[in-house]
Amino acid sequence: MDSLFRFTGVRCKGSDRAYTFTLHAGEIRLLQLASGDEKNTMIDSATGETVCREGAIEIVQGDRRFHKVAVAGPHGERRHNDGPIPLIWQPVSASRPGRVAWVAANGGLISNLKIWENVTLPLWYHARRNVVEAEQSVRHWLGVLGMEQDEFAEFMAAQPDSIEPWQRKLAGLLRALLQSSPVLVVDAVLFEDVKARLASCWMEALETCAAQGRAVLVIADMATTLPLKKIE
Amino acid sequence: MSSPVLKMQNWLGMQGLFVRDSAVLAGRVLFSLPVVIKWPVRSALLKQLYFTGIQSVGPITVMGFLAGLIIVMQVSNLVGRNEMLTLQVLIWTVVRELGPLLTAIVIVGRSSSAIASELAAMQVNGEIKNLRRMGILPVAYLVVPRMLAMTITSLVLTFYFQVVAIGTGMIVTAWHIDVSLFGEVGHFFEMISYLEIFSASLKSICFGMMMSVVPCYYGLSVKRAMTEIPVAASRAVMRSLMAVFACDGLITIVLF
Fold it and tell me: How many structural domains does chain B have?
């Protein structure tokens, strides 16, 4: 499995524990922290908004799913290297913006943008705009997330303050899934106060996302019943 | 040291910080200008052009019409039936001063408080933090389109105001003094100088930048309290007006 995201001796302010672990492609892991403050600090560090005080959070450089390395043979000829690709780690705060997608507890939508503009904001900010591809991708992920196709147009044209809290959460999750970032950081509160069927759909969506060669880190600040492998 | 002196020192220090921070913000915006090629920023720019520009056309038309009418009637009362002097005063007042200044006042009244309160509300609701966590720079996504839109709007609306005010002035003069309207238009183009056009353009561009940077600065300076939003909005309006008048005075002193 390809390594994607690495924590080395990361310690949050006020915490007596340092975290060292590596997330691989296809993995979904739960990081349980002691308090809400610690969780927020960790999310800030994991998304690259701030540099962590102690330790390092690093992400693999480049998109390893489409990586082929050409090497020179003994007689100078070019050939593809079929061996393991050397990993180049880069601090997440110094990496290209948008390489870590983030899902907020309440969706984290921007209030003066419609849902469609919200979900495509990071996608089109960090990459080239392609309406057809984005629309197909949104329809696909909304299906996975358990939304009916006939609700699509109305939902996308709505303002964030005119929809239900669970719909805002869904839009936030959809926004992160649409981004082609190798790592997703998810606030575990996202799964609270939503119907069990929906929560299960969303967890399946994260599994589908991970199966595409991405890694998902769910961060919680309290005991959670989410069926995920904990980082010890 | 006496208390008034300390207060004065504090006040001057605060003004200095405000000027420095606003200048830093303007500099960051200028360095971030290439971000306009990104679709979400362009989309925000188009929205701002609509809210700041298109929606201000009505008030600007009314103010331009009334300004042209009032100036011509007052000058006619003062100097009598003197077409050339009336036209000259119209150029001096509308092109050099009133055009950029009244347009800026309309834009500040309509948009500066709106920008400051919108950004302040986003700050309080944690939306600015959300943007940062998504790897989107708030200056690039929020301030660049607002500053560009305000600057473009200020330039275009100043020109529009001048056309309406001078057009109204000419029509009223032609009707009041009974001279040919086409003759007046000819005289206008003979009288107006490139320096006057340059000064009006320079003023409107500088005003546009100031009345966008100041509300953005106040909007983004808000911390986490709802009560800070109206304070930021009112400060943004007052400071924008002060900045516009100070800049107007400076450019007038330098150019004329």
Answer: 1
The candidate with the shortest Cα–Cα distance to A119, out of A155, A65, A150, A94, is A155
Q: Which residue shows structure tokens 């495509």?
A: A120
B231 touches chain A (CB under 8 A): no
Say what the pTM is: 0.86
What tens digit of pLDDT does each residue of B156-212 get?
999 999 999 999 999 998 888 888 888 888 988 999 999 999 999 999 999 999 999
Show the tokens assigned to B39.
Answer: 């679709």
pLDDT at residue A72 in the model: 62
| Interacting residues of A75 by C-beta distance below 8 A, sequence separation 6+ | none
Q: Hey, what amino acid is at A139?
A: R
Disruptive mutation site among A110, A177, A179, A217 for chain B (greatest number of B CBs within 10 Å): A110
d(C-alpha A135, C-alpha B117), whole Å: 33
Residue B40 touches partner A, C-beta closer than 8 Å: yes
Q: Residue B255 carries which side chain, given as an amino acid letter?
A: L
Burial class of residue A62 in the structure, from the number of CB atoms within 10 Å of its CB (0-12 exposed, 13-18 middle, 19+ buried): middle
The rounded distance, in Å, linking the Cα atoms of B119 and B218 is 8
Determine the structural domain holding residue B171 and report its residue range.
3-255
Give the integer Cα–Cα distance in Å for A122 and A176. Answer: 8
ipTM of the complex in this document: 0.84
**Testing the interface with A: which of B51, B130, B134 to mutate, by most A Cβ within 10 A?**
B134
Pick from A111, A124, A126: CB nearest B127 = A111
Superfamily of domain A3-230: P-loop containing nucleotide triphosphate hydrolases (3.40.50.300)
- B40 and A98 within 8 Å at the Cβ level: the answer is no
Which of A100, A104, A122 comes nearest B136 by C-beta?
A: A122
Segment holding A176, helix H or strand E = helix A165-178
Distance CA B112, CA B61 (A): 20
Contact B39 A129 (CB under 8 A): yes
How many of the other CB atoms lie within 10 Å of CB of A143? 14
> Is B125 an 8 Å CB contact of chain A?
yes
Domain ranges (residues) in chain A: 3-230
